[in-house]
Specification:
190 residues; Helix Hairpins; two-stranded antiparallel sheet; 2 strands; 46% helix; binds fe (ii) ion; antioxidant; EC 1.15.1.1; metal-binding
Amino acid sequence: MSNTLPALPYPYDALEPYISQQIMTLHHTKHHQTYVNALNTAEEKYAQAATPKERIALQAALKFNGGGHINHSLFWKNLAPAHAKGGSGGVLKDGPLKAAIDKDFGGLDNLKKEFNAATLGIQGSGWGWLVRHAPHSSPAYILMTTALCRVSTRPPSASRSSPPRTRTRSSRTSPSSASTSGSTRSTCSI
Ligand SMILES: [Fe+2]
């Protein structure tokens, strides 16, 4: 089945003055649409491929454009109009999420720094996700990118009381992110 561009959950001008109508329109109708079109093309070629070699050759296009489509679809849902415009954007309310960010990342500002450092060198302009960890685990949330599963400037003992079941793999950080974050580390539980 062909992939389609999802509608935005708000008007193109809803995020002004932080993101302009022009940028939102361009980003959604051109940028995201391009990923959708390229993914559909790759899937059609994959369906017609006659040999394993042909299918393997399409893996990069499927991964890159499929990831772009999925990431953008999630990204739109993570944005919201500002508080001043009647929306819920720009405010981190007191609650379990804020408490976990304070505990695991040392606050929202530090999370932003770690997020930016972790995603700086990732293909596709830096996709990363704050992911809910296993129930009742510590940390409650982990920072993931396609290269890293957890990034912290603090030693493991400072951010978790008992380590979850994990495996560690080498990180693919950019020089700038490594120098910014100091003791960058990665821990994967997938
Ligand atoms: Fe984009």
